[in-house]
Amino acid sequence: MKLSSFFHILSRRQLSFTSTLFAATPSPPPPPTDQFLYLTDLFSIFTALSNNPRNYKALTSLDSLLNQARHLDAATSVLVIHALSQLNKLQRTKSLLFNLRSQADLSPYFLYSIVIDCVVKHGTVDEVDAFWADIFRPSTIDISDYVIYICKFGDADDIRNVSQRILIGGSGLRQQSYVGLIGALCRENEGGIAMEVLRQMKSRGLQCDDITYFLLFRCFCRRGDLDEADLILRKMVRRRYRIDVCVYGSFIHGLCKSGKFREAGKLFRKLIKKDCFKVDGAELLLLKEGRRAIFQLNCEGVVPEVMAYEMYFRSLCSAGKLDEAEVLLKKMMMRRTVPEICVHGSFVKGLCRAGREVDAMRFFYVERKKGLIQVDQLAGFVIKELCRKGKVDDAVRIFDETLENGGFVNPSYASNCLLAGYWEVGRVGEAERLFGSMKSGGGGGFGRPDLLTYTTMVSGYCNQGNVSKAVSLFGEMENGNIPVNGRLYEMVVKGLCDGGQPKEAHMHLNEMVKNGHLISFRRWKALFYSTFFVGNKTMVSHLDSEFGRQ
After folding, report:
1. Measured between alpha carbons, how far is 135 from 141 in angstroms, rounded to an integer?
2. What are the backbone dihedrals phi and psi of residue 323, each rounded to the nearest 5 degrees, phi first?
3. CB–CB of 496/471 below 8 Å?
């Protein structure tokens, strides 16, 4: 975003939400009017400095106003830091960051994200650490600690962003942080970036463990990138990694994912063959080129027959080959091989995702009549998938029938599925009645409300535009000591802004920052501009280019 555009938008709108935000604030001092004037004056100065960064009068006025920055709340302070960084006023930014930490007691990881994604967003990680250490002495965290934090709590965009910053250069990370970052990238199916991180890790003399190699292998299999998976497998063999059922299962999934069903069938038949050939350790190190490594390995006794059937069956279901999967299931039953219940669940899921809900229900009733499996567990899979497809009445009927027949379906799980299904098809009244039954414990086999229950209700009310009920439920959660999360805060903030209540929205945004529910500065920035400036076409276009297209 261009500097002039950033301040033009802020000054033109004059942070229009702040006129409401501060006008009704009862807490003294300073008076509410002074806080509004503070922000409007501050951003008029920023606009002047964006035109002439050496404007002495504007700089003097800026320093005078920043001396009163302690009167700002945490969310607005982040906005001011963002503006100062745009002007490259680093010393003033340092001072405000230090005050923000000491006054609001914010998470050091969120503050570190402001430094890396806002203040020093074009520098190396060494420059980020140096800037951080210059503010907070002794330094409590560094880039390695921050990477572990992002890997645990960040989303895919956060993980990709920090990975790209690591790859720019610098002294690198500690081994544990490299391993964690590679694992997080594999979790998000970013195998290409994970390989770049691995190469940097090895270039710094750090060793990669066997589990990390397996995560890379599984990631490429999940994506259907079999050539990369084959290369990783060869490295695993050279490292004498114990090739087990997880390796074979991942590769069969990759073959089905990439449409190579003939090879998947060939590998399956090899696994169930009784006289698998033997290859000793010396020959394993000399895998031939031009043929997939997995077909050259000794699989004798590695994969039990029932597990070979199960992993091939589930791979066929995930690839949409449901007729072939059904034939395979019949072969299993003829061999008196009863698979785990999750295998039947994979078939139900595949049928419903293919639009064959009637076949899924017919399959459930047939299996219930046979009585060979725990059909009440299968009922949970059927209920979930029917609700996802909007077939709530069918799901309710199966739920009731299962209870009437003496079966057990996890009440909270089933109730949350039904609740989401009602919202999906717009049956608000029935959703509210079900929620009321869950709260009162009024029978019917429904479970007590949990975090997912409240999240579903808040999301439904916000999407419907009934923000007052969403906020009421949010407050009920806080008063009832039900843990809230960042997703809930985002729903409420966006809902309040859409409903024309910017003061309340800003209040919840501030609580979100203070309570540690905003993981990173990037998330704050995207949330702030997508809510408070959602009506501004220019800002939205800048957001699309800056966030959505990276």
Report:
1. 12
2. -65, -45
3. yes
Q: 């609700």: which residue's tokens?
A: 387
CB contact at 8 A, 505 and 20: no
pLDDT tens-place string over residues 520-541: 999 988 888 877 765 443 333 3
* CA–CA dist 255, 455 (Å, integer): 37
Q: Render pLDDT for 95-114 as a digit per residue (tens, 0 to 9).
A: 888 888 876 678 899 999 99
Consecutive H or E run containing 34? helix 32-51
Neighbours of 126 (CB within 10 A): 13
Kindly provide the b/e burial profile for residues 494-528, where b requires at least 16 CB atoms within 10 angstroms of the residue's own CB: bbbbebebbbbbbbbbbbbbbeebbbbbbbbbbbb
Banded model confidence at residue 550, pLDDT cuts 50, 70, 90 = very low
* Cβ-based burial of 158 (10 A; exposed 0-12, middle 13-18, buried ≥19): buried
Residue 478 above 60 pLDDT? yes
517 secondary structure, DSSP code: -
Q: How far apart are CA 107 and CA 516, in angstroms?
A: 6
Residues with Cβ within 8 Å of residue 339, at least 6 apart in sequence: 306, 309, 310, 313, 329, 332
Provide mean pLDDT across the span 505-524. Answer: 88
Q: Where are the alpha helices (DSSP H) in 299-404?
A: 305-318, 322-334, 341-353, 357-370, 375-388, 392-404
3-state SS string over 134-154?
HHCCCCCCCHHHHHHHHHHHC
In order of 90, 446, 511, 549, the CA distances from 27 in angstroms are 31, 44, 16, 42
Which residues fall within 8 angstroms of residue 525, CB to CB, at 6 or more apart?
82, 117, 118, 547
| Position 347 pLDDT exceeds 60 | yes
Residue written as token pair 């899924």: 360
CA distance 241 to 234: 10
Per mean pLDDT, which of 77-91, 276-290, 301-315 is the most reliable? 301-315
DSSP secondary structure, 63-131, as one string: HHHHTTGGGS-HHHHHHHHHHHHHTT-HHHHHHHHHHHHHHH---HHHHHHHIIIIITTTS-HHHHHHH
Nearest Cα residue to 395 out of 379, 374, 376, 378:
379
What pLDDT digit, counting tens, does each position of 429-451 carry?
999 999 999 988 756 678 888 99
Length of the chain: 550
Q: Quickly count: other Cβ atoms within 10 Å of residue 56's Cβ.
A: 8
